[in-house]
Specification:
Radius of gyration: 36 Å
Order of helices and strands: HHHHHEHEEHHEHEEEEEEEEEEE
Number of helices: 9
CATH topology of the largest domain: Jelly Rolls
CATH architecture of the largest domain: Sandwich
Mean pLDDT: 83
Number of domains: 3
CATH superfamily of the largest domain: icosahedral virus
Shape: rod-shaped
Distance between the termini: 42 Å
Structural class: alpha+beta
Strand content: 25-35%
């Protein structure tokens, strides 16, 4: 280490104040030491003088130095963060760590008021860590995930199972790369047309119930029997309710029996039920009141179960956007 005298000369106007202040403090410090050594009865006052001198030194150095600032300037809101804040509610979010880029980072979602499934903690439960490792082994983790994996106090996600995300109440994930579309999931399927339900007429309605596992259902399929196509007519009413006690009507559609073909599968779509997982739904097919007989029934399997099918998409939504832009 050496003193660059030329740079000192170039910046002397800026350095003069701090140098003179340091020299003055040094002189006062030497004076307190001499006073403490030569006058024992003033030792206490000299020591308190040192305390005051330290305060003056720190105050002169730090009274104009403020390294803090608005958090919004350090971590500005992005479209992705705004989307999560508007839609995640009380559910958790899970950043996927799959490359060199640190996606959000441990505990960063909390800065935005988001609930995070993982993060950093000095007191990570072993049971939680074992649960995450079972659902997300991270055997081929790369990039920043490698050093995160070495720290037992960080819980992060690489390629977790849908079941793990469900257990942790994760409703949205943030990924540095596009996620594979899981496609349509069959939630409830009864196949075959070995028998039939009998004609849907008057008080003879066909109904049933099913419980959703983990998709946002939006499609109902019915396979119908038309007993005498040339005589079939009237209207069938198809309804679907959410809740075992039919709390909310999800679907109501009318089918023209005269346009149906025997053993035809009719597909009905409705708005995705995002809160469907774990809930029971009740369906019903009946003849419209104005025509008590339609000449149509439902196919059934060998056990007498009506042939219907219910499908849905993955119950979380995808956000097509960048985390940092």
């Amino acid at each position: 280490m050496y003193l660059n005298w030329e740079q000192v000369q170039d910046h002397w106007p800026a350095l003069r104040g701090p140098v003179l202040r340091a020299a003055g403090l040094l002189v006062v410090a030497i004076a307190f030491l001499a006073l403490r050594d030569r006058f024992p009865h003033l030792r206490s006052q000299a020591e308190w003088g040192f305390v005051g001198l330290v305060f003056v030194d720190l105050f002169l150095f730090g009274n104009q130095y403020n390294p803090t600032g608005p958090v919004d300037d350090l971590l500005p809101l992005t479209p992705a963060i705004k989307f999560l804040r508007s839609n995640s509610g009380l559910h958790r979010v899970a950043p996927y760590q799959r490359d060199e880029q640190v996606v959000l980072g441990p505990n960063i979602p909390s800065v935005y008021g988001l609930f995070e499934a993982g993060g950093y903690s000095s007191l990570v439960s072993k049971r939680l860590q074992h649960l995450v490792d079972a659902g997300d082994p991270k055997t081929k983790v790369t990039g920043a995930g490698q050093w995160m994996k070495l720290n037992p106090n960080i819980v992060f996600f690489n390629r977790p199972s849908r079941r793990l995300l469900d257990l942790l109440q994760v409703v949205y994930v943030v990924s540095p790369e596009p996620l594979a579309d899981p496609g349509v999931r069959a939630e409830y399927v009864v196949e075959g047309c070995a028998a039939h339900s009998g004609e849907i007429a008057g008080d003879h309605t066909i109904n049933g119930a099913f419980t959703i596992r983990d998709s946002a259902i939006n499609r109902l399929d019915l396979r119908l029997r038309v007993y005498q196509p040339e005589l079939a007519g009237g209207t069938l009413v198809v309804r679907l309710w959410r809740g075992a006690d039919r709390e909310r009507l999800v679907l109501e559609s009318q089918l023209d029996a005269g346009e149906l073909e025997d053993r035809e599968t009719v597909t009905l779509y409705f708005a995705p039920e995002k809160g469907a997982p774990g809930r029971t739904y009740v369906w019903e097919v009946r003849a419209a009141e104005e025509n008590p007989s339609a000449g149509v029934g439902l196919c059934t399997d060998t056990a007498g179960q009506p042939t219907i099918a219910v499908y849905g998409a993955h119950w979380t939504e995808a956000y097509a956007g960048a985390v940092y832009i």
